Amino acid sequence: MATAGWSTTTKENTNFARLCKLLIDGGTHVLRKIFDAKHPPHDLKKHLMDRRNHRILKNLKTTNILRGDQWIKLYPSVDAPTSASFDITLLSLLLRNICNLPTPANGWSNEPAATSISQEDDIVRVKLYRNKLSHISERALSDADFNKYWNDIETVLLRLGADMAAIDSLRTQSMDPEDEEYYNECLKEWAENEERLLQAILGLEEKMENLLKTSHNRPVRPTSEGKF
């Protein structure tokens, strides 16, 4: 794999950026389709105002799992909410929390078994491919690595409802340096948001564990026998 200098763009850099575009644009498209099927656009406001959904989302906001700017997209002060404004991070969060999707056999954070190809498993795979790409420090991919990643991601997106013609178009579209930088930054932001969510969840789990310890260690108040 070639490594690009800081001021140059190579074929390997373009390969990486093109893969980011497939994952981000394609992933956003299929996740939005799934979300819209659960909460149709014409009824989205009603679904978000549903008491149970609103309580879940408010709790996510209170615990800093849902960001303030995401909350505004869900509950704008003017106009009605639209899923067209939801990015892939927000869509992933909503699918897991207010769409009644079954929890994948290996959970929402672990690699599904190769034989598990449910919708929920493939939603997890989209995130895991993001993880793999975000750990490629050079932001560059050889043609061989690019083709392998592309074929794997393409398979998942197609199962989730992506259009083959649209995917083929992405593979051949020209990309200028500004496009490459944009998708590199999108991937970085997506990864940072997921890390922030993970830290928030871990913080909640730690608080719960401490509360349980405090409860177990609390002394029992003695009572006098025969008194009520």
UniProtKB/TrEMBL annotation:
Domain DZIP3-like HEPN, chain residue ranges per copy: 41-183
Pfam families (UniProt xref): HEPN_DZIP3
Keywords of the record: Coiled coil
InterPro entries: HEPN_DZIP3 (IPR041249)
Transmembrane segments: none
Domain of life: Eukaryota
Keyword Secreted tagged: no
Coiled-coil ranges (or none): 187-214
UniProt keyword annotation of Coiled coil present: yes
Protein name: DZIP3-like HEPN domain-containing protein
Organism: Exaiptasia diaphana (Tropical sea anemone)
